[in-house]
Amino acid sequence: MSSELLKLDSVHTHIGAYHILHGVDLVLPRGELTMLLGRNGAGKTTILRTIMGLWHASQGSITFGERDITRLATPDIAGLGIAYVPENMGIFSDLSVKENMLLAARSARRASQMDEQRLKWIFSLFPAVEKFWNHPAGKLSGGQKQMLAVARSIVEPRELLIVDEPSKGLAPAIINNMIDAFGELRATGTTLLLVEQNINFAKRLGDRVAVMDNGRVVHAGAMQAFADDEELQHKLLGLAI
Amino acid sequence: MKIDFDWKPLALVPLLALGVLPFIGSGSTWLTLTVAGLAMGMIIFIIASGLTLIFGLMDVLNFGHGVFIALGAFVATTVLGLMGDWTGSAELWRNLLAVFVAMLVAMAVSGAVGLAFERFIVRPVYGQHLKQILITMGGMIIGEELIKVIWGPQQIALPLPEALRGAVLLGDSAIEKYRLLAVLVGGAVFALLAWTLNRTKIGLLIRAGVQDREMVESLGYRIRRLFVGVFVVGSALAGLGGVMWGMYQQNVVPQMGAQVNVLIFIVIIIGGLGSTGGALMGALLVGLMANYTGFLLPKVALFSNIALMVAILLWRPQGVYPVANR
Q: Using the beta-carbon criterion (under 8 Å), do B219 and A93 form an inter-chain contact?
């Protein structure tokens, strides 16, 4: 089995007349947590949507495991074991928390058919999901919705979890909760790709880092080395540290 | 955390019904009009429920929905014509069985035509509202002409089966038997839809798809198949509604779909696009309003439902039960 779970090779993406990704090369090692950083408009969200097939690459290739997924439809990509949490969290606000979870459990037709042990584990990571189980998801706070979005994405085992800005707008206590949860997920062997703006969140959690600028990955490597190099951070992200 | 049900739209139906009582004066007349309005509302709901799901889930403005109404009604004329012995019988169960067979055949034919309509007319224009309006209206015109080719351009009588004619007396009020049947069928359709939408995984997918199609796909479901299924069911329901509407009017014309189209669009706009419960509320309000104004102020009857829609949209611009994320 290859040590690379996902590989993007010279991926270009156009959205209408706009050329957003200009040849992205990115490798996600199996079982590691990669942080995707970059300024606003660098193309981070576009990479995630291109991986999921929500926007198709106009050139280049995307390989998941041994399989070329560049031209696959979104449901087929998800079916291979990739879970996606978009920036807006994608919560179905008219449905209850339970129904949101059941929807993501593809093998279950009723709530009683969901994996009980796994649910208990998810509840231990995100107690709010259990507390508000029968409540409308639209009534949850922003932090609770983010917990539900991540909980929903892992209701069944997935090989790769990609999350767009998991810490956006969250209180520090909830961010710590998220860091613990992603750490546990990594410990179970799940590969993670997180888009982040919060550099401290990224430094605490990432094994690897990729930095984007103008639709390209301009730096990729170990997070520790990146975290130690303040000049590089300043150059790539414009951070005054 | 408090779970609150929005009861205010539910109160509109009894408020409207009770509000007109002093103007009508006679209790028996009011009861007759109210049952007639509820029956009309239930038939409109059967037709509109499919359209609201098609719009809510697929974001398709199907102005050709009316052709399935006409198709269902014309199929019923043929089926009931062939079962003349059954419809002419004085036994209620034989009449009901004939109507049931006509409904099933009408739904099957409308559903099958709906499958072709989705494939060849709607699918090429997904996501393009202006083209959807034009091409589905064109589809309806073609459908009407095909109905004229098969059944002829003239009006065809669709008499009620023997035992469903006449009225039952409730005090001084005469309640037509067929209207009671319409209320029962409409209630059954609503119960079945509500059960499917709220108690099954398919229903869960439809409700989720109405809110965020992209996320449903990201969870691994092929929403295109769901689209086709909902379109077929919506068309079949329109066919069923056509049978009910044709028997309500006791005659059918190829243009009947276009005539009802305006009413059903008013209903789904009042209800909140994509909301089945909202469509029921909208249909009952429209049915009652049409009957009350037809009795009290016949000259404004046509305008009354437009006025009702405007009033409700001023109160709730997205309809009485708006679907989140739309």
A: no
